[in-house]
User: Fold these one by one.
Assistant:
Number 1:
Amino acid sequence: MDKLNAAVVGATGIAGQQFVAALAGHPWFEVTALAGSERSAGKKYVDALSKGSSLQWFADGPVPEQMRSMVVVDSSQLDASKFDVIFTAVESEVAKRIEPLYARTTPVFSTASAFRYEPDVPLMISGVNLDHASLIEAQRKNRGWEGFVAPIPNCTTTGMAVSLAPLAKFGIESVVLVSMQAVSGAGRSPGVLALDITDNVIPFIDGEEDKVIVETKKILGKVDVASGKVADAEIDVATSCNRVAVREGHTESVFAVLKDQPGLDEVAKAWESFDPKLGVPSEPRPFITYHRDPYRPQPRLDRDACNGLSTSVGRLRKPGRFYQWTVVSHNTKIGAAKGAVLLAECLKKKGYL
Amino acid sequence: MDKLNAAVVGATGIAGQQFVAALAGHPWFEVTALAGSERSAGKKYVDALSKGSSLQWFADGPVPEQMRSMVVVDSSQLDASKFDVIFTAVESEVAKRIEPLYARTTPVFSTASAFRYEPDVPLMISGVNLDHASLIEAQRKNRGWEGFVAPIPNCTTTGMAVSLAPLAKFGIESVVLVSMQAVSGAGRSPGVLALDITDNVIPFIDGEEDKVIVETKKILGKVDVASGKVADAEIDVATSCNRVAVREGHTESVFAVLKDQPGLDEVAKAWESFDPKLGVPSEPRPFITYHRDPYRPQPRLDRDACNGLSTSVGRLRKPGRFYQWTVVSHNTKIGAAKGAVLLAECLKKKGYL
Amino acid sequence: MDKLNAAVVGATGIAGQQFVAALAGHPWFEVTALAGSERSAGKKYVDALSKGSSLQWFADGPVPEQMRSMVVVDSSQLDASKFDVIFTAVESEVAKRIEPLYARTTPVFSTASAFRYEPDVPLMISGVNLDHASLIEAQRKNRGWEGFVAPIPNCTTTGMAVSLAPLAKFGIESVVLVSMQAVSGAGRSPGVLALDITDNVIPFIDGEEDKVIVETKKILGKVDVASGKVADAEIDVATSCNRVAVREGHTESVFAVLKDQPGLDEVAKAWESFDPKLGVPSEPRPFITYHRDPYRPQPRLDRDACNGLSTSVGRLRKPGRFYQWTVVSHNTKIGAAKGAVLLAECLKKKGYL
Amino acid sequence: MDKLNAAVVGATGIAGQQFVAALAGHPWFEVTALAGSERSAGKKYVDALSKGSSLQWFADGPVPEQMRSMVVVDSSQLDASKFDVIFTAVESEVAKRIEPLYARTTPVFSTASAFRYEPDVPLMISGVNLDHASLIEAQRKNRGWEGFVAPIPNCTTTGMAVSLAPLAKFGIESVVLVSMQAVSGAGRSPGVLALDITDNVIPFIDGEEDKVIVETKKILGKVDVASGKVADAEIDVATSCNRVAVREGHTESVFAVLKDQPGLDEVAKAWESFDPKLGVPSEPRPFITYHRDPYRPQPRLDRDACNGLSTSVGRLRKPGRFYQWTVVSHNTKIGAAKGAVLLAECLKKKGYL
């Protein structure tokens, strides 16, 4: 098969760099354009990343060879119609402005929150709720677009939602989530200062808790094809989001009430046997990595399981009415660019691009 | 008033050092003996703390002048009858053996868990459940002791319990607690290695969760004078205990269902106006430090409020059915030696020593 | 004595806040104006520090009561003639512009590097080279000022220079310095990201090494009254400056060749007996804290000695041709605002203000 | 070629685990025995590593499949004659006792310091001083061994020595080294506590500085075949060893006086073109990774270059009489087990096993 033409927008930023790294040598997508701000436009990619003699490159490995000399395009000037797919990693305000322009002609996969809460926009995690892709028809019709916008959820939502997906069959009544989030989630401008987080926990991340609550209900909800909307899952979600001194990988303590009262063995089996059979290049195998060692998962040890795409779950127990467990999910891999690429692969497989 | 004669047992250990620091210059208690293991016995305190030319002293400030030259006594040989009060900071197995010997004649305040779960032993936090001291009569009668054993709770229990005490009047039905605990809680042998906790969270602390559940119910329970026992509070308690890269100060995300559905203002007021009027030298004022800045409390900024004896509470909100907040409590101050000294002061005031 | 009228310029920044904290309740200086950028001007100090409901205050303790409601003045509009002394904590570019305006009428103590390298500007550390104050006459004459500018050195220079001062009598031929610097030295905009320094060392601090070399030679040099200049000390200085994961307190490994080949006891005695007898309120006693425990000084344990104004020195040895030792110096206390206040006290005592 | 039979002694310890990981699937060496203490002997390897349900495995990746069920042998009972090569990772005291027993029949590669300073024992780093292998003949003759003992140097020595090797041709007169060492170098019993190193630097590592000085001179010295000894290099070496909050990877600030006064370009070229052409499986290519970005090398970014076997060098400059640079070297890879395996490969190639 011919590779699809892909553009990365916001390519010089930290999240955009992760798209660039994730797409280098990708078997299905060929990056043929890198777009950025007006300031970066016209420069070679590697020059746009440079500050004096220092290279501001933060993704794993070196800058991919084939993209070093690519000339960065102004994202406002990008001719979307030339691409089969566009990956965007921009601030929400910018996303609101440019993603609709691109979506006129082209599928857009976005890490921004701008369109996550629109009724006709599916909020998908590969392997969890790909059936929500059926909303795309409504989206196209409502907005007169040939393409579409498919945002991925907040990275904190992703970890818990993946751990909940195999348990949906037991009837999830309520969940309590306390996150211990990595500093990379705050990006680099301004990011989290060492002055603030060394020897410390910061118990508040502005806006994060609301996102987790709304997104979890939407993701675990059901698409109503007639109305072209998602009926939110009727799950009581409570959350407390904290920043801890970890570079990468969100850790989440989860408490859930499950209606069917499955045995712990059944729950463990639900995770261990969970296999969405995506059949796409980035598919993590296993999709969920289940641990029996009570000291696992730990972010440093488990965040990179299957290149950061497998979700690690452990510490399953039920001392009272709650099923309890711990999740580690790589916030800047499955929770960001790599998660969006995996989603694009899945939608490609389903024929949406 | 004449000062009471006090002994510190386990004085060379990290928790014992905190007793030594907390009692230096104390207006009511005079440390007249330091006891330790056979290995330390017979040495000057400052020599028992030395390893070559390096002083293994870990409490705040220098070794108190008056205790530097005190000769350490073998804790097995300590003549308890010479003391008005004994403070012990030893392993649980040792506590089981020596605390009953001391308690024959003398009140013992202990950081060990050995006796916490005995029906006739009160588990008290100053300002929270001092009325449980009435159990001491039953304890003396049951065991034929003139003294008594008064353990303090686990440091993780303490933070949450203090935050719950002022809310008991609203009817606490259930609580969920996720702790992010400081490494000092694990002590120094072996303690938490930098190798393990740097850039990491460890989602398990052996035995900790059970302690928090059992202790919280006992502390918030009611003493039944007739039976000489505590009727546990009928609160559903669920907890997940995590270790984070913080030196001192436990951070706790709490979720609670309150029967009376008070307004948030009422809850805030309950904390702000909480004043147990202990009337003792170490009493923290305010007993609870309430924060309106959503980024507070933080362990690095708030653990030392009122010398580590005030409990910091903030982030109050009720987005769903749970009242939610964050607690910071100094695990090795109010949660250990200083908390035990404060308790001893309160029992002195109440006439128990 | 009546207190001197003082203004703090750059009062809302992190270094300016430290001036505010250091000057609260000062026995000689009374802060009667706080100046900041145009953006802060006209706001109450506490409002200028606020970002939503969060207070951006980073110095020790709370915002001093008497300064909370003080209205911030635009630093460009400050009428310097109203003050007896001005403390500035601004970027070098700003300092170049505003400090000469203030100095027309008023002594200015500055943390900025703008004037450090001017021949007629003394670069002083209290207790080390206060005799350089005699340059002030030349400065006034050259520039037609009634006041003067007295910058303090770079914080990395300060630690080493204090440790060298008592050894000058032995003839310092050369020094090699490797610094392990705290993140607070980089301030907060942008500061050092946790992403970059967690589990890491950054081996480069732009411009720092040149400053240390030039400043050390100037500080240890001799004032030539006739020419109104400092003759740099003829010491070969080599340095490597590194950033480490420490919040506060620079650690410095120093190697020195001393001409007179003193015994180690003589060197230790030179430090232990060093007493500049400043006779001013902030004078640290001892001025140098000398450690014999080979594991000391450590930044976490020793940075706050004498409120961050005592310089800690230890690990003295001479395994080869170098005398070697380790210094810990509080970069944002003696190395910044508190060091400038101490200097102002000394110059007040000497009659310069 | 048939693989050589290899035994790993001390296989359950942290350094021994790294041998196990390094040798899994090795093309030349086949691990046919794992030896440990009496306590581990008789257990399956994976059971010997287990503590309850938690696996105490600290090397990269999972426990190699083929070694999981291998039964651990008591290292005192190991029949060395059955092996072509033995890798030991034990405490120095144990090494002194058991390595001579093994060496009677078999070449022993050791991470212990026990034999490093013996005149007839070569202290080799692959690519640096493999010619010192000629000492083995003297060693065999002196001791009546068929095998030999080949210890690797201290991990701190290794980094600097590799960076110096290509510069030997310029005439190294003196070096000053300040190390900022990772906590993994202290192992796990007791290791470095998070309590001690969080927000801190520890300026002393017992015995380390002497090792670096002695070893550097020996490694850069010349073998005198007639006497069967090494004539130490006549280099003045001074060093200060510090512990910093880094998990893995030692960072070293080096200052050197080079007799020939080469240009900086010549020095850079010496590193960039340095190619010992080892021709063995683990050979890192490049052997030295030279950086021009002044912010490099950094331990977190550069320690794993070429699987932890390439030495990273950067920040070359000569502001005064010293050539100065920074080294990052992976202390538990090239500085421990992997370095010993690389050395064994080289000696195999040279016919010593």
Number 2:
Amino acid sequence: MHPTILKNLEELYKTYSAYLSENPFTGNPDNLYDPMNYIMNLGGKRARPMLTMAAALSAGGDSNAVLPVAHTMEVFHNFSLVHDDIMDRAPSRRGQPTVHLKWDMPTAILAGDNMLVAAYRFLFGYTGQGKEAIVSLFTDTATGVCEGQQWDMDFANIEHVNEASYLEMIRLKTAVLLGCCAGSGALSAGASKDIAMQYYQFAVAVGMAFQLHDDWLDTFGDPNKTGKKPGGDIGEGKKTWLYIAAEQMGLPIANLYKEKQDEARIEAATALFKEAGLDTRLLQLAATYNEEANQLLQDLQNKGHQTQWLEELVAFLSNREH
Amino acid sequence: MHPTILKNLEELYKTYSAYLSENPFTGNPDNLYDPMNYIMNLGGKRARPMLTMAAALSAGGDSNAVLPVAHTMEVFHNFSLVHDDIMDRAPSRRGQPTVHLKWDMPTAILAGDNMLVAAYRFLFGYTGQGKEAIVSLFTDTATGVCEGQQWDMDFANIEHVNEASYLEMIRLKTAVLLGCCAGSGALSAGASKDIAMQYYQFAVAVGMAFQLHDDWLDTFGDPNKTGKKPGGDIGEGKKTWLYIAAEQMGLPIANLYKEKQDEARIEAATALFKEAGLDTRLLQLAATYNEEANQLLQDLQNKGHQTQWLEELVAFLSNREH
């Protein structure tokens, strides 16, 4: 641990928080702009803007110059939360009512739409290096995120999902936006497309590891640390990696997911996963992505990049994930 | 009427239709891309791309070079139809089931989101003149359209809407996108921002006249020509210009809108509007916008612009509006 670096990470967080406060959405009617500001101010780790800024610094760039890009990523992320919460019928987000419940569904659709436009507006306000490549990367990423969300919804209606499809779904739904943040940060520092792709792949690998670790925590996590009862995904009948891997092994998991999942079924499914050693295999899979991320980072360090920013950020975000 | 010009308008229509056919949305999963192609291929006048192309020609530009911009406008328009149809709980669009009914609501939200991203993607693919100004105009317009839709939804819950607010709502919801088409077409021809704004204002005025005429047709139109029973807006209790003007005159219109509107109430409201001379006043208001459009066009013609493209397009679209 490098206390100096951690101090600096805090400064990145403060810098972004100040930028966010200074750039509220403004306009009329209130019913359009209030929900946009509401979701942006529910808090959260601000992982995406911080990743964008940290990547800019790692690649020798300026974390202040890249702020409009960093904000674009956070606005886009929050747009996707507003719309995903409608699709998933989620009642709450970060302990507060979701936009479609606090207002209504039409308002939530429209607020999301205007946030997607606003994400582009902030991106166009960026005047630094690599703008065209960043706009292009962001646009490809936005399409990928839509594809990931649709795959996720499709999986609910597909009986047999294979592991590769599941990993591709979480890559699109979660990891590519992190990749876009890191890649954009590097591009803002004048990095070549190849180097930017290395930052992108690093953050995609981090995102995969995070998501798989989240899957693990959901089933096997310590409620004293996670703050929620384990087995949520099983209870909802979600076909996560554990379900898919169990099915591939020929285990009788489908029966436990067929009807409404009560406590007994959640316990039985959890026991079945454990007996098959899937808890360990899932952590191992997450570890391979972490290993990939570390190798990419090591290579960047060998090329003279200040990768401690990204190392510390990953450590910082990991600590808050539990 | 200039038969040569009309022939050429047909060619613009064919050119755009060919471009549309050659540029289907492609990707996976099908549940994301099929609804996007479905809505794009339901037909329609293609007024927005044709307006973009006609404005480019009027300003001395190239109607083929501007095709990616023209397509951006049509994709954006169809994105807004998909999302508005969810918000308005509309069962059909152009005689076919709406996307959220043919698929489902989450799919319709996501297809719309990906279309908004795709609209930007096509815009970035444009390589001609005025690109930066067009991107900026389009982004402002997209925000305006969201604001207009929210105002429209807000009006359902506001007891007294004034005329100025209503006109501003239809300007944002309908007219500014037409303005953006004409302005972008002019910018693609290398027009100055002032000239582009003149094209923009021309098309906004045309859009206002169209929308007000639509309001008139909905209540007073000949069902043999419009193909639908008059009084739809009254039946839905919509606060259109007629309602607002009647209320401003102190007429007892609110009572007729309070409960479910049956045939008798529709007839009574229509009679009340007529007795107050509001049918004539509405047509006069539409005519003032047409007059404004003509003056802007005349001025452009005096400056050497080939405005017959736009004159013929307006005539062509008006004929199909009835």
Number 3:
Amino acid sequence: MAKFLVTGGAGFIGSHFCDVALQKGHQVVAFDDLSTGLEIFLTEAKKNPNFRLAVGDIREYSQISDVANNFKPDWVIHFAANADVRRGLERPRRDLEYNTIGTWNVLDATQKSGCKNFLFSSTGSVYGEPEVFPTPETCPFPIQTSLYGASKAAGEGLISAYSMGFGMNSVVFRFVSIMGPRYTHGHVFDFAKRLRQDSSTLAILGNGKQLKSYLHIEDLMKGIWLTIESKPTGFNVYNIGHDDALTVDQSVNYICEYLKINPKRTYSGGERGWVGDSPRIQLDTSKLKKLGWSAKHSLEKAVKDTIGYLTENSHLLNRID
Amino acid sequence: MAKFLVTGGAGFIGSHFCDVALQKGHQVVAFDDLSTGLEIFLTEAKKNPNFRLAVGDIREYSQISDVANNFKPDWVIHFAANADVRRGLERPRRDLEYNTIGTWNVLDATQKSGCKNFLFSSTGSVYGEPEVFPTPETCPFPIQTSLYGASKAAGEGLISAYSMGFGMNSVVFRFVSIMGPRYTHGHVFDFAKRLRQDSSTLAILGNGKQLKSYLHIEDLMKGIWLTIESKPTGFNVYNIGHDDALTVDQSVNYICEYLKINPKRTYSGGERGWVGDSPRIQLDTSKLKKLGWSAKHSLEKAVKDTIGYLTENSHLLNRID
């Protein structure tokens, strides 16, 4: 049994991580400011005596360091982040505060608590607009195109410098968009929300042809646990995502199939959904596959599980997002 | 005539930039907290009515934004930084505060003041321990090995995201170690200081064989002005450094030749001077050369001009560093 401190533990991905950790018999503290995370995602976890929720904000050093110093985790799993990729330019300090300064706070508190093992959820957005597809971890030095990508890349750099400087063991995952139950953020959520109000039309940002890779939450969990259980040393970075990709239009097709509707689609136009949007994301996951990982769920299932969950939990669609 | 706001304008590199800008007939405000910058470096500049020194700290947003909003610069040249590469691990928040958050403050204040042109002094340390020498700007996605390199890489990412998001024009220079008059930081300074106290022995960090590239301040200024005067658009990144490199031992040879001494050398050992030190730095500068740049001064001259300046200004050696 090991002790896991999970930031963003009440969020979509974090709460799944807590559930799996508890199933495996580990002790878990979820740290979350509940600004986007939801306590209902922890309903099962809370029944387990090995689980505790600590409400706190990663932007406040003492809040995360107090929890780390008291709990003395074996691993810190850092999911807490500002994930509002699209609106970075409206609130340009937000990504810096959550994803860079917040990551420094969690990382330094981890190191000072004596914990040597750190896992970080980064993003394929750190590649900006790469020239190589699928994009490997070792692609040419990227040019950041979004404040979100820049802030996550900065977090990665802090983690590798800490690993080198303080002898920590760390794993950085560069995620594609993750889908599945408890998904409460992103284009399927936006579409589900708007289609619920009016299923006759659907306004789509960009030209609908942006090609993006996704992954089912269960396949993400398998990849993360594979690396943790391999007892990594030093600094390690892995892409994770499905080999397949979907255009926004194909994704809408699956949503409409599931909902049995046929809205008229309108497009804002342009190859990017918004300034800084990557028109294409597809990651080379050969490195993770060499550890034995593969995706089991198709992207069709990922989209349909997501829209299915949102349909069954339509109260979530009322959340401001 | 254009208006230049120069952060770190009282420092080694910044004060040279101010001098050249004034010689070219431009209007200059130097912004500096005088924590490591020295007003004596601005003795000539202060005689010029086109020059003003604004004392302030880039870590305080309002201090830099007030100056930017009042002066309305055409260019912001951002040199202010924590350059204490070696002691990053002793004060691990320092690089983040100066080089990442400070850079965000300067960048956002620039953008909000209506200024569209930004130049940033980054470092070859962003390459960590690269596998390719000389290292081009497009080398594989680097792994950060020092908090200094990580904090500067984070600054670069912010600048490219702002350039993309707000239509700014920016130039990032990845510097090697710069030498010449007003040099007050780094190994030649440390050696000069210790040899002045005792010229019979010299303790050297590492094995003396770390191979590093350097550049004379005059060659740096030529490169920087070449890019400014080419009216760059979008985001641009350039390596700058001499094609030659010196081992620490060779550098000591030049210092001893100049001082006409022959100290007994002792070595702390290991291929790195300290944890996170890059054992080898040599940058591919083909991209800048295509603009017409080349280095005129040899590294022997760079080292000897530096030790010559420190000998003539030995009061500087009493500064705590």
Number 4:
Amino acid sequence: MAFQSRLVDLFRWRRDVRGFKPDSVAPELLDRLLDLADLAPSVGLSQPWRFVTVDDAVRRAAVRASFTACNQAALEARDADADADAGLYARLKLAGLDEAPVHLAVFAEAEPAQGRGLGRATMPETVAYSAVMAVHTLWLAARAEGLGLGWVSILDPLAVTAALDVPQSWVFIGYFCLGWPSLNSHTPELERHGWERRRSASARIHR
Amino acid sequence: MAFQSRLVDLFRWRRDVRGFKPDSVAPELLDRLLDLADLAPSVGLSQPWRFVTVDDAVRRAAVRASFTACNQAALEARDADADADAGLYARLKLAGLDEAPVHLAVFAEAEPAQGRGLGRATMPETVAYSAVMAVHTLWLAARAEGLGLGWVSILDPLAVTAALDVPQSWVFIGYFCLGWPSLNSHTPELERHGWERRRSASARIHR
């Protein structure tokens, strides 16, 4: 049972990481992790995920600007509602964009030729879902190496897509910060900072 | 490195399983797996996934009927195009609905109160994506116990939602067969049967 129990540990301390040390990630390690992500399940074996590493400073700045704008808008929407949580929201660190050595954008090819359309006729969203499972595979594989990953979703998908100059047929899935975590914890960041807490699973299981 | 290499093995032989032995799955094991799935990442720590185990014969039959209708429509669409692959498509086994001891439907609560909206204002699809990561967590955890899981997406989401009588606010993510696999293989089913093959990852990584 050693492997199963270590797998459970991995699920438990996976975390969304938003603080990173400045240390770089070896290119060979990143390559290996992306190769593992490529083993994820995909509808019709279409492997529709597309990974884009973002190193260019101008492109990173455009993504950072989109995050800043969207996060400010989210904060103002709370203010407008006289939301008591606006102050707490403003203090949360929601992305590690400034410190993470590796920036990765993930897209899905909306209508991949590979897979010949199998399995997605009635549920085209399974293409995006496949890319999400590739992200999750990367997340677990990275964490197993001691790396941390943070998912940045407070972004305008159109702005990011434009900044990265990718094909029109690609659907933006998410933007990811990868690097060596400055903190390891079993407790989710949003729980540590009093925003939200895990709830018992039983409420989500219906028989 | 023993854990990392076993994790890689798990990614490699995870498979979408469509053939099951008749043996049942102990309820305690299923409970434990669903608890693990609940550790998945979620936008704003919203834990928006909803698991519904489907035991009722009438409900199972309704899902089976939807699969049959959608699969027939997919086959006819290929025939209409004089698709040379229609014969091969017709011979593929695309779901283990008749044998799998456990049937599980997964939904996402479209606008979960938990998480207080954090992270999903510009990308509401992250709610569904969170549920997909819970599915993938379940998949890996099940596989680590020797169980197999198969994702059935050849379904009408509205028909399944109606058959299972779930709240209107729930979005259908997928339907899953779980049980003890009749075959274990490193090679994807669709590759074994000549439908599609894995391609090199390099084409999907852009620097």
